[in-house]
Write a structure and sequence with these properties.
The protein is built from one helix and five strands; from the N terminus they run αβββββ. The protein is mainly beta.
Amino acid sequence: MSETTAAAPAATEKKTVRKTRVGVVLSDKMAKTIVVKVERRVPHPQFKKIVRKTSKFYAHDEKEQAKEGDKVLIGETRPLSKLKRWELLEVQKH
């Protein structure tokens, strides 16, 4: 009987799925921080032409392994500073 009560909370726990993005490093001049440009292609609301939109994300790079121009994978994390909400997961291409 105690087994069923112990298993019930484990079944209700949810594993959070964190967002990931692939982008290009714009700057690595800060200590343990990189600026990543992420480009997405979306249709224009009125004209329906595919346009490119870019966003800049500040990501934490603990080992300072990413360099300017690298293609990187970043993942969502808890707030680390005023602007940093992402962390470097892997460098895909140098």
